[in-house]
Amino acid sequence: xxxxxxxxxxxxxxxxxxxxxxxxxxxxxxxxxxxxxxxxxxxxxxxxxxxxxxxxxxxxxxxxxxxxxxxxxxxxxxxxxxxxxxxxxxxxxxxxxxxxxxxxxxxxxxxxxxxxxxxxxxxxxxxxxxxxxxxx
Length: 136
Description:
Layout: E1 5-10, E2 15-20, H1 25-29, E3 50-55, E4 58-60, H2 70-74, E5 77-79, E6 83-85, E7 89-93, H3 100-111, H4 119-124
Parallel strand pairs: 1-7
Antiparallel strand pairs: 1-2, 3-5, 3-7, 4-6
């Protein structure tokens, strides 16, 4: 017997995709490449894929309470990597929607907050060119 599949609609972007009841919403969405739900650790520990289920039924597995409280979960706020559809789903992505490549670029910029000395600084103190002549 094969798994049932359901239509998942992302309200923020208007995108839709099909997700099997055996796949979490994030895994199903990854067919969209870098669009839709932001992708993080894929294991419920980073909170990047936080969404609000607007309609539909689903089942969840354990997720980090650092990112989703019991109260939020009861109101439909969940991590897409920990949710499996049981019917057609409409969801909204919470927080700033970021493409994968932007996600990885931001931490790189943060770590380079203290710039290395610019090469131009060291060339200012260099002696002038001698036009091929040896220095005295």
